[in-house]
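A quick aside before the break. I want you to see a complete sequence-to-structure record at least once, exactly as it would be stored in a machine-readable document. Don't worry about memorizing anything.
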Amino acid sequence: MLSWRRVHDAHGLGRALAGLRRDSGMSQAELAEWLGVDRTTVVRMESGSLGALERLTAALAVVGADLVVVPRQADVTVTPPRGSADPEPAR
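That is the input. The structure line, written in tokens, reads:
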């Protein structure tokens, strides 16, 4: 199913991963095998309880950003909010 998810925290990122994994018909054990990790690592990722994920999503929130998870085949266009200045080009 082609759907996107806006992620505000590590728990939301875990839910997005779990939903996408289920949509693909893959079990936690199968994903773990693909990643070369134990199934409990996938469980922790899906619950949002990996420290690095928690710090990453907290840092994004502090700087005023959200993480958006989109399927690879999606065509995505991002526009700035009304009244905002054009962003500086990436360097």
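Two observations worth writing down. The longest helix spans residues 10-23. The beta strands are 5-7, 67-69. We'll return to this after the break.
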